[in-house]
Amino acid sequence: MLAAPHGLAFAVDAPGDALRRIGTPDRRIHLALPDLLGSLRDLARGPDAADPDFPLVLSAGERRTSTANTLYRDPAWRRRDTEGALRVSPEDAAAFGLTPGRRARITTRRGSVEATVEVSATLSPGHISLPNGLGLGYPDDRGEELVTGAPPNELTSSAHRDPYAGTPLHKHIPARVEAVS
Description:
181 residues; mainly beta; 6-stranded mixed β-barrel; 2 helices; 8 strands; 9% helix; 24% strand; flat
């Protein structure tokens, strides 16, 4: 492969070849998968009741115009939202005593972090959001580690995950929030 800069053909299939690869004993595609049918039946009962200890839904790792992958650790490139604010709805800000520009503690079953509050009408009541790509260390001018923003991975747990794919449910984490004095 390395000696062929023009590319490499590793398979050549004729139309219909894929059907020969169906691995079921009867060589048919089965759309009714028993483990998924149970999950579909569970949808009819609706969402589980909210846990009073964690009444909010946190979206950990929201993509924003001022965030990027954790590959970019130098905080100087961020011109807006430099600390990666916690976004909350106006209703939740009032209910939890949160003030724009002040600090809040976000707690999940996995852990707690602090972030600066941003009140935003773009969120529905009951939902809060932290951006991705923050909470990492970067050396400052003196060579000391500077950590900017809240690390959303500290709030997510591999125990709270999709039952089929196994991926943590970063966008739906039961959480609570409180003002930090």
